[in-house]
Design brief:
Blueprint: E1 4-7, H1 17-32, E2 36-41, H2 51-63, E3 73-74, H3 79-91, E4 95-98, H4 102-115, E5 138-141, E6 149-153, E7 157-161, E8 170-172, H5 180-190, E9 195-199, H6 203-216, E10 222-226, E11 229-230, H7 246-251, H8 256-264, H9 278-284, E12 295-296, H10 299-312, H11 315-330, H12 336-349, H13 356-367, H14 376-381, H15 384-398, H16 405-419, H17 423-435, H18 443-450, H19 452-462
Parallel strand pairs: 1-2, 2-3, 9-10, 11-12
Antiparallel strand pairs: 4-5, 5-8, 6-7
Helix pairs in contact: 1-9, 5-6, 8-10, 11-12, 11-13, 12-13, 12-18, 15-19, 16-18
This protein binds one RNA strand of 76 nucleotides through helix 4, strand 7, helix 5, helix 6 and strand 12.
Length: 463
RNA sequence: GUCCCCUUCGUCUAGUGGCCCAGGACAUCGGCCUCUCACGCCGAAAACAGGGGUUCGAGUCCCCUAGGGGACGCCA
């Protein structure tokens, strides 16, 4: 039997970070087993589902490079099938019509609260024979009384839910549309899903669904309920924790590979391995190695991982990734000359960036027009003395016939000797004039990459 | 309220009864390197929630307590 997993988000918002990890785990499990990873949009609640959210989910998965197999299934398209299933259950006495009003149901829950039981539907319409006028009934599943439901979960282990906790869930709303509970079971069965991997918030749903599988005469899939991701404070991840949408991480300059690596390590591990390729993750992944305790999202660790991925990315690919941002910052299209400068210095630049935005920022001086804008630190460094010093250095550098890393370095060093100053006293003003900052890659590399004309020009501007 | 789950350094985790006076990674703090900042390298500090058992032996098994999380919709 080949593995078939699925990611089944409801299109009511963006693809959040927890969903992204659920998708990753499903993808990993499918790829590991040489099986299929399917995508299903759970849009049974038509009023809350939006096309924008569907697009956001696609975009998020594509960005993370989690490719799905076959066509996307829109759950709403299967409504007729779901209805037929409900009718069948009704005909076999496994479901019944319920005429309770929302007010009645609310009162029921209030009462249950006082009595100290589960907040559940009490089954009062189960054997009702009269048909109240003016009320469109819902169809409820007749949840079997008696035996506990045992979920043999691949992550949670054996979980036993008392039957008394499981009430008669709604299968068909009063307008005849199917609910999620019926739809997932039917679609997972119809799509031949073998492993349902989702958040633990669905654990009790699994018990209800198991009852449905039994009533329908179907073999249930394997279940794996993975722990949720929490915010830094241990509470459920929410907006106040900052970025939640996968798309925001792209905008913040995270690499998809780093994201996958980080997310994979949240709740799953392979010994002490911290940094691994997606291929390795596919090879190593197993549900048995997924933990049961919730993990907190650690932004700094993600950034650290991202920085190592940036360093491992080739300079051409990296240039392609930052070129749009660089051009935007420069306010005009980049020239081949700019491209050469940036790629030449990228090996140095990328050691200093934890995300792509920092990289763009650090590379900006290479494509900026003269006269350079100086930041506060840089203009502080360039006082009158420093400017005079630079003027002298400029004429020395101007005499150079061959502008290369070694000749430039030799010139600056001997200039420092002649001035009787430590190199640092020369390097900082030079850096300020050349980059507009107090911080940059090595000054000789900067000099070389900028080239004689541009470097001398910037020195003239500053001196 | 009822039910379910969780609990190893600040954080992510290794650990499946002896290999653990608990290992790795991020963060933190020192140091080296050094033209700045990084990178890199070296080093330090830092945890088995508490209490009972079981066992020759428990982070690992059982029970209780505490704390945390989740579920209980004509949402998914």
């Amino acid at each position: 039997m080949t593995v078939v997993t699925r990611f089944a988000p409801s299109p009511t918002g963006f693809l959040h970070i927890g969903g992204a990890r659920t998708a990753l785990f499903n993808w990993l499990l499918a790829r590991h087993g040489g099986g299929q990873f399917r995508l299903r949009i759970e849009d049974t609640d038509r009023t809350r589902s939006t096309p924008e959210a569907v697009e956001a989910i696609f975009a998020g998965l594509r960005w993370l490079e989690l490719d799905w197999d076959g066509d996307v299934v829109f759950q709403s398209a299967n409504a007729a099938r779901h209805r037929q299933l409900a009718d069948d259950l009704l005909a076999r006495g496994r479901a019944f019509r319920c005429y309770c009003t929302p007010e009645e149901l609310a009162a029921m829950r209030e009462a249950a609260k006082g009595e100290g039981g589960a907040l559940r539907y009490d089954g009062r319409c189960r054997d009702r024979t009269d048909i109240p006028a003016g009320i469109d009934p819902v169809v409820r599943f007749r949840s079997p009384d008696g035996d506990d439901v045992v979920i043999d979960d691949h992550v949670q282990g054996e979980v036993r839910i008392p039957a008394a906790q499981l009430d008669d869930l709604v299968l068909l709303r009063s307008d005849g549309t199917p609910t999620y509970m019926l739809a997932v079971v039917a679609d997972d069965h119809d799509m031949k899903v073998t492993h349902v991997v989702r958040g633990v918030d669905h654990l009790t749903n699994a018990a209800r669904q198991l009852q449905l599988y039994e009533a329908l005469g179907w073999t249930p899939p394997a279940f794996a309920h993975i722990p949720l991701i929490h915010g830094p404070d241990g509470a459920k991840l929410s907006k106040r924790h900052g970025a939640m949408a996968a798309a925001e991480y792209r905008e913040m300059g995270f690499l998809p590979a780093a994201m996958r690596n980080y997310l994979a390590r949240l709740g799953w591990s392979h010994g002490d391995d911290e940094i691994f390729s997606t291929e390795q993750a596919v090879e190593w992944f197993s549900l048995a190695a997924v933990g049961r305790s919730p993990a907190r999202f650690d932004f700094e660790k993600l950034r650290s991982l991202n920085s190592t991925y940036i360093q491992r990315t080739g300079d051409d690919a990296l240039y392609a990734a930052i070129a749009p941002g660089l051009g935007h910052m420069a306010g005009r299209p980049l020239t081949p000359e700019h491209r050469n400068r940036v790629t030449a210095l990228l090996p140095e630049l990328k050691k200093r960036a934890k995300d792509l935005r920092e990289l763009v920022d650090a590379a900006h001086f290479l494509v900026a027009d003269r006269p350079l804008e100086l930041d506060q630190m840089a203009s502080g460094i360039l006082d009158a003395d420093a400017r005079e010093l630079l003027a002298r250095l400029k004429s020395r550098l101007g005499e150079l016939e061959v502008w290369q890393g070694d000749t430039v370095e030799a010139t600056v060093r001997s200039f420092a000797d002649d001035e009787g100053l430590p190199l640092g006293m020369i390097a900082q003003p030079l850096r300020a004039a050349l980059t507009g900052r107090a911080v940059s890659p090595g000054i000789f590399e900067v000099l070389q990459v900028l080239g004689a004309a541009e470097a001398l020009g910037r020195l003239a501007d500053a001196a």
